[in-house]
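RETRY 2/3 - previous attempt timed out on the joint model. Re-submitting the same 989-residue input unchanged.
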Amino acid sequence: MTGAEPTPGNGYLIRGASPLGGPRQDLLIRDGLIARVGPGAAPDPGTRVIDADGLIALPGMVDLHTHLREPGREDAETVETGSRAAALGGFTAVHAMANSSPVADTAGVVEQVYSLGERAGWVEVRPVGAVTVGLAGERMAELGAMAESRARVRVFSDDGICVSDPVLMRRALEYVKAFDGVIAQHAQEPRLTEGAQMNEGEVSAVLGLTGWPAVAEESIIARDVLLAQHVNSRLHVCHVSTAGSVEILRWAKARGISVTAEVTPHHLLLTDDLVRSYNPVYKVNPPLRTADDVQALREALADGTIDAVGTDHAPHPSEHKECEWAQAAMGMTGLETALSVVQHAMVETGLLDWEGFARVTSTRPAEIGRLAHQGRPLAEGEPANLILVDPAARWTVDPHRMATMGRNSPFAGLQLPGRVSATFYRGHPTVLDGALNTPLTPAAKETAWTG
Amino acid sequence: MKHLLSTHDLALHDALRLLDTAEEMAAVGEREIKKLPALRGRTVVNLFYEDSTRTRISFEAAAKRLSADVINFAAKGSSVSKGESLKDTAQTLEAMSADAVVIRHPASGAPARLAASGWIDAAVLNAGDGTHEHPTQALLDAFTLRRHWAKVAGTGSPGSDLTGMRVLIVGDILHSRVARSNVWLLKTLGAEVTLVGPPTLLPVGVDTWPCTVRYNLDEALADRPDAVMMLRLQAERMNAAFFPSTREYSRRWGFDDARLAALDTLGLGDTVIMHPGPMNRGLEISAAAADSVRSTVLAQVRNGVSVRMAALYLLLAGGTHDHPAAPTVRENPALSPTKEPAV
Amino acid sequence: MTVPAPHAGAAPRVVLAEADIDRALTRIAHEILEANKGASDLVLLGIPRRGYPLAQRLARRIGAVDPSVDPRAITGQLDVTLYRDDLQRNPTRPPRATQLPPTGIDEKVVVLVDDVLYSGRTIRAALDALADLGRPRIVRLAVLVDRGHRELPIRADHVGKNLPTSSAERVRVHLEEIDTAGGRPVNEVVIEGGA
Ligand SMILES: [Zn+2]
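RETRY 2/3 succeeded.
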């Protein structure tokens, strides 16, 4: 983007926002940093004032699990469109999953994605590196080269496919210790899920769709936490979807095993009962589970057993969803609905306050991904990656009005609370008044903390 | 009723209306002139993504007896096999002014998808979808059972239901659309259904179905069923480790000569043996059982045309959008904008 | 009593009471025998729903005149639903049973019996249905009420009462075999609606 409005020389004064839902404060943003926090600040000449009356200030959201589709599936999403959607959704950083084409399994591909993210300038795009060459589950990819590349990859995942070979998984867990990496496992035992279409249970029995048993997820998580303990390495579990997985994670954490986990917004709200419509917009991997699972996931996110929310934003061209269930692609968009769904499922149910919201959407995912400048406190001298949220807003989800190219939102037509009013990425407003503003320009990127 | 997609959501009232109408259609089938003008000018498309000559012929005969124009659209050798999507095919049929689409599809839910998609206005009749449902098969089975049950009771069939009738469904329940459709419909009609099969071929979640589940066929027979419905064992299951061997399957869950004799020993003179066909003689049913006087196999085929006539007539004859039937797709409360999610 | 429709102009008025219906049917029974020169080969086919009990009543009267006639053996029901030309204009109606007497209808003198003759379309459908069932020697038509407004070249051979009506009015026939009023059987013909 050229011709973008430059950051005002004297920055932005956010007036009257409630950091983490607390007492109202003014926040002065200048040179990419939060320059001052306090009540009643008077604006300098040239400082743009943003009235944040009634808005909550939160650290910019960090997504550990985003499918940006580029390179290779630019008909589904590009880094540009996906990161616009992220900014609108309140994110200042996303992790781009490795299952592109070519697969992000070399330093060259992850640097390409990283550069595309920089050029787009809407959010920090951090590529995830593939664990195995071509996601084939046979040979370890050059994890070290990706870690040392300009993209500084720390999260490695074959997401979409489980690293099911226990020896390979063990080696990968061991190997990434050399550069403080983490293996993000897509836990799905392949033999138990051959041809699987939906959660195996009461609904699949009626619908005659091949079941996807919870045990296929739980058995891999059980194996992997034991492996992580054995080799003393760091494991992250993608998109936990069952109550049984929660119990295993709780047990592992109690034993001091270094495991973290994420849950998607859709698994916090939707159940497999929706599949009765056979509408493939509800087809996703892992599948929508039961109401009991949803309840267990909410409680686990609240008590920290599950560390973070990861959207698993998975845009698909319409023809991959406008077909029979069995032939449809798996996945749902999520970037532009994540905040609202989590507010609805967690905050408005009293399970999390806004501080907790910040923990699961920003602080913890940034720590897991080792993003030094994300998920920081809203304090003086910290990087200005933050968002302003109107928690009282109500809006009806319309996939056709989203920035993502994917129209496959399972929340279409649902009225949800909470809107992102502004997103500041490195001190620059990528979103203002609930609409895209301008991306961060290359000049503005030369900030003090870029490193 | 706008579509016939499943028996799961078929109300008793609609089921009885279908069966009673089928009785009148059966009467027409016994006349010299078997044709009726009721669907003159209407176009019925048989859209078959799976080979099933039996079902297609039955629907074709039904449509023709009602004077509808019939177009057979087989997936093999057509644009469908060249990758044309269901949506494009549906819109093609819409452009051809199809009034009804009879769809057979290997994917569970394809008919429901077609009906709810807005791609086509036509009535959709499910002629078997994947391992989901086969509602007209269940209706013809229920029709056959109802006639038998009425005869045993010495009453008339029209208007009656299956209250008190005990029906065994035996075999591969997991992959059977016939079993699913029958469980729901027979239960709606008041029958007591028992499923019998190897545990590997019973779906997880079957415990929530409105029926009894047993693993032992001989014990189930000792409970004096009024009808025993044997399911076809698909060839692809035989090599998929659901059971050790076809010999063991046949011994434990096949309706063999010994079990046929057991019906006599138990004094079950009125118990019928059903099979949706085509039969694997010697595997799930012995030749003697298939050909015995207890067998309703041929009556089932005959009744299939009557039941399909009834379905086509009731879906197509009246003005469109007459009265809404029971919804076939239930809305999820989680997506109701006004309500707190159910989860 | 029939509850008037909310927009009905005039209150329903009884145009044939029970005694009138009895007299009309007795007269028609005699006319049928006269036209047929006796009861031989007679078959009475009622058109559901109210044509059928009327056919039964006529057959009983014929049996009373000619004791050699078994009323049940000459009475049947002819459903015309599947032959109607207005199926697509109305909500789907399930067909009713067609039941012919054991003698069949080939070479018989078939008297179609219906309650009200109006446009004539029901009778056209009945003639089509009959043709698919066999080949009667003669087909005649008996109706309790002829209210005019014919849309086809069809007329009745035997009429209980000619009732000039406006097309805005509705003629309702209530027979005790089917209808009740306040729990009691009722036999009457009423006109509802109109100006
Ligand atoms: Zn995944």
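The interface with chain A takes residues 8, 85-87, 105-110, 112-113, 116-117, 129-133, 177, 180, 203-206, 208-209, 329-330, 332, 334-335, 337-338, 341-343 of chain B (CB under 8 Å). Closing ticket.
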